[in-house]
C-alpha cells in the first residue's frame, strides 16, 4: 500500500472516531483554551472538572482530560451528571508553558462557577498567556 | 484642603509599602470594585496547606493597601481570593462565579507585583503588573 493511500485511510479513521465521540449527546459544559501570546489554541493542556458535594463541600473529581488540537476537550460531563451546583475547572497551565520551555506567573488556573440551570449550555473558555488570563461565561 | 499630619504620612508609608498590590474593577458598571472582601494566602510547602496572611476589603478606589509586609513576602506560591459572589449580591445581582482565586508564584520578592482583577458578573481577567 502506498504511503499516500495510508494517509487517506488514516484521515478517514480519525474522522470516524471524532463522530463517535460526538454521537452521544454533547456535553452541556464545554471549554476552550486559547494561547493569547501566540494566537493559537492551547493544545495538550491537562484539565480536571470537579463538582462540589452539596452536603460536605468536598470537591469530587468528575473528569480528567487533555485539550485537543483545537484547544477543546469534548465529553466533559454527561447531561445526567450535570446537576445544579458549584463546579471547578482546573487547568494545568504551568505544565503547558513548561512543555514549551517557558515559565509562567500562574502554576495553574482554577475557575469556580455556579450552575443554576443545568438545562442550559455553558461554555467556560480560558484565554491565557504566561502573565495573564481571562474567562467568561459563554453558551 | 485637608492637612495631612505625620501620623497619616506614616500610615500611608506603611500601607503603600506592600510589595504586592491589587486593584478590583467592575467592568460592567465602569467603576472600581469597592468594599469587596479579599484574602491573601501562602502555600505552606511542608504541610501542603494554605495559610492565611491577611484579610481586607477594597476601598472606594478598589485598592486594598497593606496586603503584606516586605519581611513576610518570601518566595513561594500565593493565592489571592476575592469574594466576588458577595460583592455582586450586594449590588442585587447574581454572578457566575461564587469567588475568584488567583494562584501565582513569587520567585523574586524584591520586585513589585500588581495583580488587578477586572470583572463583570459573567467574566473576569487578571494579569501580572508591577
UniProtKB/TrEMBL annotation, chain A:
Pfam families (UniProt xref): Transthyretin
Entry keyword annotation includes Hydrolase: yes
Cited SMART domains: TR_THY (SM00095)
Enzyme class of the recorded protein, top EC level: hydrolase
Keywords: Hydrolase, Purine metabolism
PANTHER family: 5-HYDROXYISOURATE HYDROLASE (PTHR10395:SF11), URICASE AND TRANSTHYRETIN-RELATED (PTHR10395)
Assembly description: Homotetramer.
Name of the protein described by the UniProt record: 5-hydroxyisourate hydrolase
Automatic annotation (TrEMBL), chain B:
Root EC class: hydrolase
EC number: 3.5.2.17
Swiss-Prot/TrEMBL keywords: Hydrolase, Purine metabolism
Gene3D superfamilies given in the database record: Transthyretin/hydroxyisourate hydrolase domain (2.60.40.180)
All residue ranges annotated as the Transthyretin/hydroxyisourate hydrolase domain in the record: 15-130
Catalytic activity from the UniProt record: 5-hydroxyisourate + H2O = 5-hydroxy-2-oxo-4-ureido-2,5-dihydro-1H-imidazole-5-carboxylate + H(+)
Tagged with keyword Hydrolase: yes
Transmembrane segments: none
Domain of life (superkingdom): Eukaryota
Quaternary assembly: Homotetramer.
Family: Belongs to the transthyretin family. 5-hydroxyisourate hydrolase subfamily.
Listed name of the protein: 5-hydroxyisourate hydrolase
Species this protein is from: Ilyodon furcidens (goldbreast splitfin)
Amino acid at each position: 500500500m502506498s504511503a499516500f493511500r495510508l494517509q487517506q485511510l488514516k484521515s478517514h479513521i480519525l474522522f470516524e472516531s471524532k463522530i463517535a465521540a460526538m454521537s452521544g449527546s454533547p456535553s452541556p459544559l464545554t471549554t476552550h483554551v486559547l494561547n493569547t501570546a501566540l494566537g493559537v489554541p492551547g493544545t495538550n493542556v491537562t484539565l480536571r472538572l470537579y463538582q462540589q458535594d452539596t452536603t460536605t463541600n468536598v470537591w469530587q473529581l468528575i473528569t480528567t482530560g487533555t485539550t485537543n488540537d483545537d484547544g477543546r476537550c469534548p465529553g466533559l460531563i454527561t447531561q445526567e451528571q450535570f446537576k445544579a451546583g458549584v463546579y471547578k475547572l482546573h487547568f494545568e497551565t504551568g505544565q503547558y508553558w513548561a512543555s514549551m520551555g517557558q515559565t509562567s506567573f500562574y502554576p495553574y488556573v482554577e475557575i469556580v462557577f455556579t450552575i443554576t440551570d443545568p438545562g442550559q449550555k455553558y461554555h467556560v473558555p480560558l484565554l491565557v498567556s504566561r502573565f495573564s488570563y481571562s474567562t467568561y461565561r459563554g453558551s | 484642603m485637608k492637612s495631612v499630619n505625620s501620623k497619616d504620612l506614616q500610615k500611608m508609608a506603611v500601607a503603600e509599602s506592600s510589595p504586592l498590590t491589587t486593584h478590583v474593577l467592575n467592568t460592567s458598571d465602569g467603576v472600581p470594585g469597592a468594599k469587596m472582601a479579599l484574602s491573601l494566602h501562602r502555600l505552606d510547602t511542608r504541610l501542603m496547606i494554605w495559610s492565611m496572611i491577611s484579610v481586607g476589603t477594597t476601598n472606594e478606589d478598589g485598592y486594598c493597601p497593606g496586603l503584606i509586609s516586605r519581611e513576610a513576602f518570601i518566595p513561594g506560591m500565593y493565592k489571592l481570593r476575592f469574594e466576588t459572589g458577595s460583592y455582586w449580591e450586594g449590588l442585587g445581582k447574581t454572578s457566575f462565579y461564587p469567588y475568584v482565586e488567583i494562584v501565582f508564584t513569587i520567585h523574586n520578592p524584591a520586585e513589585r507585583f500588581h495583580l488587578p482583577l477586572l470583572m463583570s458578573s459573567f467574566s473576569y481577567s487578571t494579569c501580572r503588573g508591577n
